[in-house]
Design brief:
It is a single chain. The protein is of the alpha/beta class and 392 residues long. It has two domains: 18-47 and 291-388, Aspartate Aminotransferase, domain 1 (Alpha-Beta Complex); 57-289, Aspartate Aminotransferase, domain 2, CATH 3.40.640. The protein has helices spanning 7-17, 57-70, 78-82, 85-98, 109-120, 135-142, 156-165, 189-199, 221-225, 253-262, 264-267, 274-289, 292-311, 330-342, 372-388; strands at residues 34-37, 40-44, 102-106, 126-130, 147-151, 172-177, 202-206, 233-237, 247-251, 322-328, 345-346, 348-350, 360-365. The chain has a seven-stranded mixed sheet with strand order 3-9-8-7-6-4-5, with helices on both faces. A three-stranded mixed sheet has the order 1-2-11. The protein has a three-stranded antiparallel sheet with strand order 10-13-12, with helices on one face. Helix 4 (85-98) packs parallel to helix 12 (274-289), helix 7 (156-165) runs parallel beside helix 8 (189-199) and helix 13 (292-311) packs parallel to helix 15.
Amino acid sequence: MTNHLAFLQNKVQELKDQSLYGALPVFSSEQKNRVVMNGQEIVTLSTNNYLGFANHPRLRTAAKAAIDEWGWGTGAVRQIAGTMDIHMQLEQKLAEYKKTKESLLFVAGIAANRGTIQCLMEKDDVIISDQLNHGSIIDGVRLTKSDRKIFAHRDMTEFRKALQESKDYAHRLVVTDGVFSMDGDTAKLDEMAELCEEFDAILMVDDAHGDGVMGKDGRGTPNHYGVADKIDIDMGTLSKAFGCLGGYIAGVPELKDWLTNRARSFLFTTAHPPANVAACMEAIDMVQDEPQHLKNLWDNTKYFKKGLEDLGFDTGHSETPITPVIVGESSNANKLSVEMLKEGVFVKPIIYPLVAKDKARVRTIVTAQHTKEDLNFCLGKFEDVGKRMNLI
């Protein structure tokens, strides 16, 4: 049989030659602060398991009980025969948690962004987007026939100009990350909300890295900035801090009605297994009735961030548990990742095109599960490797 995809061998080799190729890391243990990878126990600083919920006993118990009551799979998409009472219960709980009227569950955050933007905006509309928005937002924008305006990252002068220049469009959608996943900084949602109100624009926030992390009881970046009631479309995820799987959109009832009937990524994906849905609900309860997890996360974040800065590393402008260690060229980031792994610390390199060519970094994320022993161990290894590589 002829291999019609043989041309990909050269393309993959090009990635390797440019230090842009990444092999999949494979764990042989559950997701927690210390994991086993390739037979070696290591401390991981590369997981989105912010609160340590991914392996928490309460989530395990909830998931097992749901299997006994509902079975494993759902057998269909939501609009055909896949919607169960438990899905509706989760959506109600999410709406109450986010203090909105309704919410709609998607298979993943990327599906929520793509589906919402694609079905909401038309050819006579314009989308105004932060330069460093997540790739799933960019994908959603590309799926529309709308015009688009990109403003420099967090630049409110450029943002205001984009709003002023778009006054003749039928609708204006402003979309931004709440927490930016590569730098750990946040959108200026207070200023953005005020400007959107002034210019009558729709404001959508992708708060994947803010859910469960920012604001009171982890209600997100809009809550942190005190503008939750001014966000028209709140996109969140259940796959990071809540330790489960899924994305969702929270907002007004008419938004849910429209997405339920027109968002292709909702219409054409099978409904979530009940076990996952039950675990999601348990996680939302836990972040509210067990505040120690969020406190531990932020205590660890401040401790580790200060430790890196005291060593002399460039951590950018991070305001969150996402703390980049910026080292310049892609080759530096790749080598730092490799050397840290040899020392028992897993940090994933983030390189071009995910970040600028001269801003390659390893991205660190501490969790509520990390102990001070873990963090001191990692800081010691950063010091050793950083000095060997002449980074500090």
